[in-house]
Amino acid sequence: MKQTQQFFEPLSDWLAQQPLQSLFFKMLDLCDVAGLYIVNRDQQVIHWSRGAEQLSGLKSGNVTGKPCLQEYAITEGDDHKKQLIKLIRADGQELELNKMTQALYDQQGAFSGGLGLLFSVSERLVGSTVVSEAPKSDKQAFQGLLSRSPAMQAVFQIIQNAAETEATVLVRGESGSGKELVAKAIHDLSARRNAPFLAINCAALSSSLLDSELFGHVRGAFTGAVKDHSGLFQRAHGGTLFLDEVAELPLELQAKLLRVIQERNYIPVGGDRSFDVDVRIVAATHRSLREEVKNGRFREDLMYRLRVVPIFIPPLRERREDISLLIWHFIRQHNAANFRKIEKIDPQAMRTLLDYAWPGNIRELHNVVEYAFAVGRGSTLRCSELPPEFRETRNVEPQPAQNLPSPRVDEPAAIRQALEQNSGRVSEAARSLGMSRATFWRKRKVYGV
């Protein structure tokens, strides 16, 4: 006991000089990506972090100020208690989480609530430290897709269900989010798995070349057509054809695609007879087809034919719990090449990676890991080994500015008021002022709020 007191003595002396409420809020902000939550003595939730939202599927606004579920309860004596909890989400999905709790006591020694930490079953505890392990559960690794996000688990279920049918699927997601992997998963899980899976990017070719590539052409159809050419529809017969960036398809080809879907036949370029075809179509786009229809760039009847089963892939910035999982997945892939072996990531580098917006999604994350392996040496990945954009001041994406304090307003007071009104939740406070989290954090640091 004496050794423990000596160990904490420097920390106690330092804490005595700090504004504790401000320090506590800053610690909560740093822990926002972790599955941290706090309950009071009456088992009401008074803090529910972004990480807890993502792991549990419960939004902070829906649980804060309300009694917690029994599985999340923290009672007197729950000091360093570790347990596995099993839940059923609102969508009916079963969920398993590890929970570690610490009861809290007031100055009179009475129980006043507790801190809870949730983490995935793919993580284990060594002492009081959460250590990530390689994903072993089918709930994280699914047909080449890797995620522990509840939102992605729902996507996996839709893929599984859609694969059992012949329905046309439309996958929507940002560039680099894994749309082709989703299409390939649908194919591999379907009855067509032993037939061809072919893909084409509709934005990569001119209208005439795309016409020939999709539907083929006969000899003499145009200058240079010296022999018959089999199109993708013919070569994919019995299998699946993936049409990436289908929103870029020219209007004249949209009519031909609609015919294929409706009539199950097509006519090659320059041909005079139709060919029957048995192909399942999975299309993908990063645009809203409804908006394209409104703007006259896409046929409404084709949109309805394509989006029989719509699947939306959330961007990486909306499933932060996947960032570290994917980073270590790609590190293990590159470690296998034996050029360099990364065994740990510098905390500041990991913080930088977690805070990044990842506009290029998983593809960009993979490129960043590859860059680090190329330019760095040693067993630790450091900030200096990240691409230049990670070491530069990034322009903040414009945010709605209707609530942004004017130069004449006391900005520190506005920030304090926003924090108070949002119970210390940084994301909500920043949003109420029309600021990004990064700008909000920087201003708090400048003003000492």
Automatic annotation (TrEMBL):
Keyword Iron-sulfur: no
Keyword terms: ATP-binding, DNA-binding, Nucleotide-binding, Transcription, Transcription regulation
Limits of the Sigma-54 factor interaction domain: 145-374
Keyword ATP-binding tagged: yes
SUPFAM superfamilies for this protein: Homeodomain-like (SSF46689), P-loop containing nucleoside triphosphate hydrolases (SSF52540), PYP-like sensor domain (PAS domain) (SSF55785)
Pfam families with a match to the protein in the record: AAA_lid_14, HTH_8, Sigma54_activat
Name the record gives this protein: AAA family ATPase
